[in-house]
Design goal:
By secondary structure, the chain is mainly alpha-helical.
Length: 119
Amino acid sequence: LAADIVNSQADEIETLTAAETRLANAGVERGSLGLPDHMAGMSGDTDSLKTVDRFDEAFLKLMIPDHEGAVAMSKVLLANGQDPDLKAIAQAILVAQEEEISQMRSRLGVDAPMPSEHH
């Protein structure tokens, strides 16, 4: 699962970084999507993974909210975006990360949002 995440997100990050540069050059202000900052990326303490006893569980508990943020941002882009390349990657992110969220929840043995998920 982690290898799949690395592979899929490496391409996404490259595409999104290029798009961010294009948008910044066009004068689009960062944060103008109308999405709360806490949903715009990894918000957990990734350094805690270095010393955690139950690494796999801690990894999943950090990754699920991160993926949920990506899904939420993708939905906003699909609803409001104009750039066809960004809309295509948003759709790909939506499909891939919803599947990964399902796999991660299954591995944790949970179907509903975890108590720490307050979006």
